[in-house]
Design goal:
Elements (H helix, E strand, L loop, with lengths): L7 H9 L43 E3 L5 E3 H4 L3 E7 L7 H15 L5 E7 L7 H11 L8 E5 L3 H10 L4 E3 L7 E3 L2 E5 L5 E6 L3 H26 L1
Parallel strand pairs: 3-4, 4-5
Antiparallel strand pairs: 1-2, 3-8, 6-7, 8-9
Helix pairs in contact: 1-3, 3-6
Length: 227
């Protein structure tokens, strides 16, 4: 069924031709904490969250290869997340295009992982996710970009909220789902340390600058623990 959709490269090209917009979908759902942190290259990044320093929700879910990705498997690594669905006709192509820029810069770093959660698991089965990754140019099994299938939409929406993103069913929205374009930067202990407008190249550039800052902090923490 997924083969009837346009090649992803074409969708990315179409999205790239559009004007830059805030990280909201066509129905106006806004990102939470978007760009709340300062544009900093200082020694540490802030801890983000409505309830203060609180880790993201624990999860254990299959990826595009059927392998399990979990908060446990991600422990000790820095990772970047987004929430999407394969048939999204709105913001997803642009958001994935921007995230692809980040991935290309850090793909060779074994301590950096990219995790894209589908918010439409009924359609986005393992073969669909594998095809989506392939069309993006993300080739398993060597890839550090995992496309993860959530169990159902309510679980996906709850998980998105944990990462300071937003998603909900909206039959009036393109594709029937309204969601934000937030990217989240998460540390080795599961805390969100940055949020970025995935539709804004300048915001994504800030992610590219701040990711090494977080890596340096994590490496220093590991070195201290090893003494």
């Amino acid at each position: 069924m997924f083969l009837k959709y346009l090649p992803l490269a074409g969708l990315l090209a179409l999205a790239a031709c559009g004007p830059s917009t805030p990280a909201t979908d066509d129905t106006g759902i806004a990102d939470v904490h978007m760009d709340a942190q300062e544009d900093s290259t200082s020694a540490t990044l802030p801890y983000l969250g409505a309830e203060g320093k609180k880790p993201v929700l624990a999860f254990s879910l299959p990826d595009q290869e059927g392998k399990i990705v979990s908060t446990k498997s991600l422990a000790g690594k820095v990772y970047v997340t987004d929430f999407f669905f394969a048939t999204c006709p709105g913001i997803c192509p642009k958001m994935q295009s921007e995230l692809l820029r980040v991935y290309k810069q850090f793909a060779a770093n074994p301590n950096v992982v990219f995790v894209s959660f589908t918010i439409d698991p009924e359609h986005d089965t393992q073969p669909v996710l594998a095809d989506y990754a392939r069309r993006l140019g993300v080739n398993a099994p060597a890839s550090t970009w995992r496309f993860v299938r959530t169990p159902d939409r309510p679980a996906a929406y709850k998980l998105a909220n944990s990462y300071l993103a937003a998603a909900e069913t909206d039959l009036k929205a393109p594709g029937g789902i309204a969601h934000s374009g937030a990217l989240a930067l998460v540390d080795d202990q599961g805390y969100v340390r940055g949020t970025y407008d995935g539709l804004n190249a300048a915001a994504v550039n800030r992610l590219i600058r701040q990711l090494p800052v977080l890596l340096a902090e994590v490496n220093a923490r590991k070195a201290t623990a090893a003494r």
